[in-house]
Amino acid sequence: TYEFGKQNSYPAFWIKKISVSSKAGASPNSGDIAGLISNITSNQAMIGKPTTVELSGNFPGMEITDLTTKLSIDNTKEKSLITFDFKMGSYPLAEHQLIASPEVQIGFNKAYGSLTTKGELHGLQDFKFKMINNISKIDYKVSAKNEVVDSVVKNVFNGINLVTINASGDGELPDVAIDIHSNLGEALQKGFEAQLNKKIDE
Asked: Which tens digits make up the pLDDT trace of 132-172?
């Protein structure tokens, strides 16, 4: 259906504001959420404003803190524009085994991450985004069968206090070129070099 509005008229459907507010309850998945949803309408061009969502909060039972979401859906122009900005100040990472072999065991008991991602979708086709994911407070679970290797591997991983996983993408859906970069490879290289040099000096 189409709406042909007159000057200074209103669309057939328009919710100007919705306030969102909730408090964490007995459920471990509940959270403290506050925010505002603005301009839900059947005709954005008529009011000249996009639909926007702004939310923030924490989920104490899930150890998720400083969560913020900003979303804009703009259909006021010929090509739509959707933008998003999502942040999570801290979230937990459960136990995970990275390498499991008879000779070496590498994993972690627990860690915490922080996540930031933002991007835009233009004309429901051109998509680009950036993501920054930092992992810290890592409780490593590392061991090796050989005593010397065990000492080296433990010292290397205990020296890596921060792991970064950054990603970006740009292109037309569904063929978006994605680039992923992490500091882990370089950190491992430097760590093993330092430990080997230490063993040589001994």
From this structure: 999 999 999 999 999 999 999 999 999 999 999 999 999 99
Identify whether 28 is preceded by a cis peptide bond (ω within 30 of 0).
Answer: no
Report how far apart the first and last C-alpha atoms of the chain are (Å, whole number). Answer: 80
Outline where DSSP puts E strands in the chain: 14-22, 32-41, 51-59, 64-74, 81-93, 96-100, 104-122, 126-144, 162-172, 175-182
Give yes or no for a contact between 51 and 15, defined as CB atoms under 8 angstroms apart.
no
Length of the chain, please? Answer: 202
Pairing of strands 32-41, 51-59: antiparallel
Predicted TM-score of the model (pTM): 0.85
What residues does 55 pair with on adjacent strands?
A: 35, 69
User: Residue 16 contacts by C-beta under 8 Å, 6 or more apart in sequence?
Assistant: 38, 39
Calculate the alpha carbon distances from 111 to 12, 53, 100, 124, 173 in Å.
50, 30, 19, 36, 34
Q: Can you tell me the distance from the alpha carbon of 28 to that of 60, in angstroms, rounded to the nearest whole number? A: 8
